[in-house]
Design a protein that fits this description.
Helix content is 37%, strand content 13%. With 95 residues, the protein is of the alpha+beta class. The protein has a single domain, classed as Winged helix-like DNA-binding domain superfamily/Winged helix DNA-binding domain (Arc Repressor Mutant, subunit A, Orthogonal Bundle). Helix 1 crosses helix 3 and helix 2 packs across helix 3. The protein is globular and about 35 Å long.
Amino acid sequence: MAEEQGIPPFDPEGAVYVYAAMADHIAARIQAGELRVNARLAGERALAEEYGVALGTARRAIEELRQRGLVVTLPAKGTFVAAPQPGGDGETEPV
């Protein structure tokens, strides 16, 4: 489904760290609308399995997305796609 929306396939063999490639891929899915605002991401273990990476790599990718302001993690709830900021400067804030 991702390729139909113009999202390139996940490539862990590229010239970047795997966690960064994974974060970039998830960010592209958010930008393409595949993952909508307030959508709950799969758990870290499920993401690790989906992307074929180690659990630590998936955790690092989620941390990278948090630093970019694309997702917010709520303890005991999960990780959710953040809503864009009202200022419209491209940054996002937690929902």
